[in-house]
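Table 4 source record.
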Amino acid sequence: MVMVELFVVLLFIYLGARIGGIGIGFAGGAGVISLSLFLGVPTSQAYIPVDVILIIMSVITAIAAMQVAGGMDWLVQLAENFLRKHPERITFYAPIVTFLMTLMAGTGHTAFSTLPVIAEVAKGQGVRPSRPLSIAVVASQVAITASPISAAVVAFSSMLAPKGVDYLTLLAVCIPATFIACMVGAFVANFMGRELKDDPIYQQRLEQGLIKLASDKQRDILPTAKTATYIFLIAIAFVVCYAAAISTSVGLITDPALGRNEAIITVMLTAAAAIVLFTKIDASKIPNAATFRSGMTACVCVLGVAWLGSTFVNAHVDGIKEIAGVLVADYPWMLAIVLFFASMLLYSQGATTVALMPAALAIGIAPLTAVASFAAVSALFVLPTYPTLLAAIEMDDTGSTRIGRYIFNHPFFIPGVVTIISAVALAFSLGGLLI
């Protein structure tokens, strides 16, 4: 029966992946029905990440308010200006930009706005656009595991708290490890593919007049953009400082009236209110913002996948402990491989985290191993179907960023794998000092 139940779990995950987007959440709910009503698996001990969903909703509300006020456009304009001033280092500076934007916003979808500029600047400099585009997309995905307000980090920190690893320690390991790893990935990407001038596809497209000329057109920035952005950044800073004050490692506030998760929710909702009040934007436009829609989609995905995965795992946790516990004890890096392949299918760092990390910690995997393996939930680049990856391909009119004949031989694969391996190795080293 265990194998039958596992087959049902994998079947519905596969169906969700086929549907795409919010469909993963739908399939998760259907999978829970199949396990419970038809196979008799109890759901009473299943993990439903209510706090994580509420945090996603509140953070996305603040980000959407900032977007409506023009704050996202202003941040993108700053990023564009930075990239245009340093075109010769585009392969290294592009992932820095997408990493920092994801770090602040908690979503990798911020990369959409900068990808056209990256392609344009690289092309103007004679650099093969696939090099900076590939590592920029990877950096926007890996940075999710370092963002103080991402769903994956918030969920994982809640799981680690009972194990003695607090929110600040998690960030102290993940931020430097993932950032340095992205630079390692950029170094590798810088040598991938032949030079642009030697690429026959580029030469052919150039002769056909399919290559667009560079444009220095500036964005129209709303006068409310800076105010909204400053309010949002102050909110993030407050959340991090408050989390530090109530953490066991700092202990400035020993008996907080407001927990960390509750603080994130209330501060972000307050930030959204402040943005609306001070910028006088139309609040009815916030639910229509692209970031709001993507955030609500993430909520449904996290709900369905977490419920499905935890229903199966908690029903067989003792058996899983016996088999997997010994294996991971001898080979701790195996957890990173499991997370890597799971995230390929789930297409979400948050969904992968809430689906597998509780099980990993439940079977006795050491917190250091879990933290070090965390970056592996970002393998969304492996299958060439993720939105930011497809956008990068579409925006490169030189034809250098393309999917190969064998599906996996695309320019994102090697830099991405190198980045994740580096992040895991660095996190093991750094985590050994801090955890």
